[in-house]
Write a structure and sequence with these properties.
This protein has 272 residues and is α/β, with parallel strands linked by helices. The protein has a single domain, classed as Rossmann fold (3-Layer(aba) Sandwich), CATH 3.40.50. The chain has eight helices and nine strands. The strands form two sheets. Strands 3-2-1-4-5-9-8 form a seven-stranded mixed β-sheet. Helix 2 packs parallel to helix 3 and helix 7 packs antiparallel against helix 8. The longest helix has 20 residues. The two termini are 29 Å apart. It binds S-adenosylmethionine (SAM).
């Protein structure tokens, strides 16, 4: 299911006609979606200097031709960006994953502050999930028909889970201070929402088809930029070497434009 389709369905029970909505971390899909809801007031925020996102959103808002729909550049971690109780709904669609860890809590706190009492925040982002999977092997299939007979070959996954568990802290240490981009586990978000004081925190998951090639090339570009900024020469050359191996592997596989994979997303609704 498309990400925005899922959100549309999940929040279809609300009436937005008289509402003031904040698109926290704007972009083509969320801005289009929110314009379609025809709210009374729509404020779309792009990060200071992110003209690329801001311009796309401006074009979408111009089509709606409503003077109460506007784009603002700023830092959502800055509490002074809006006054308290300014919005009835806030959508943060693929925003949190772009925030440095030091900005996540201030941003969630600001959302709380900026929501009017009873106002709601909706948060959709990629899930970083670790699924334990025991490795099995076939013992006997007998004839080709019937159920495979499986036996546990290895519990290696339980060891590798620790590595996965440490993957996010490792990324945060490597790239902290830079905006973008960690997939925070929904478990963390749920705890943080509770700490801020939100009520009625509801969580769900969905999966969305993603183009494999587009995603790989996008991430490759991102990784090159980040590694390019590392000052430790040995770390930099080691990472670039590893990256080269991945690129060779990718090139060797001749992956077509049509190839997709399923990405897991989490969705939160919470109330002030
Ligand atoms: C991945 S995009 C969001 C996608 C968008 N919702 C869509 O539908 O296309 C992330 C957005 O968050 C904004 N952003 C990132 N960090 C921010 C910050 N600290 N304050 C405000 N906006 C931020 C970026 O400028 C960008 O507009």
């Amino acid at each position: 299911m498309d990400r925005i389709d899922y959100i549309r369905e999940a929040i279809s029970i609300y009436d937005f006609s008289n509402a003031s909505i904040l698109d926290a971390g704007t972009g083509k899909s969320s801005a289009r979606f929110l314009v379609d809801l025809k709210p009374k007031v729509l404020t779309c925020v792009a990060f200071t200097g992110d003209i690329r996102k801001g311009k796309t959103t401006e074009e979408i808002l111009q089509l709606a031709d409503n003077y109460q729909y506007k784009v603002i550049y700023g830092d959502l971690a800055d509490s002074k960006l809006f006054s308290d109780n300014s919005f009835d709904f806030i959508l943060a669609d693929q925003l949190l994953g772009e925030l440095a860890v030091s900005k996540v809590m201030p941003t969630l706190e600001n959302f709380y502050r900026w929501l009017s009492p009873g106002g709601k925040v909706f948060i959709a982002d990629r899930e970083f999930y670790q699924k334990p999977e025991i490795q099995y092997e076939y013992v006997s299939m007998g004839e080709t028909k019937g159920n495979a007979n499986l036996s546990v070959r290895s519990n290696q996954d339980i060891v590798e889970l620790i590595g996965l568990f440490l993957a996010i802290p490792k990324e945060i240490i490597l790239f902290d201070g830079k905006e973008r981009n960690f997939d925070y586990p929904s478990l963390w978000i749920s705890l943080w929402l509770g700490h801020v004081g939100y009520k009625k925190i509801a969580q769900s998951f969905f999966e969305s088809e993603i183009s494999l090639k587009k995603e790989f090339l996008g991430r490759l570009e991102w990784a090159r930029q980040r590694i390019g900024g590392i000052t430790n020469r040995d770390l930099k050359s080691g990472l670039l070497k590893e990256l080269e191996i991945l690129v060779n592997e990718f090139d060797g596989r001749n992956i077509g434009d049509e190839e997709v994979f399923l990405r897991k997303y989490f969705f939160f609704q919470a109330e002030k």
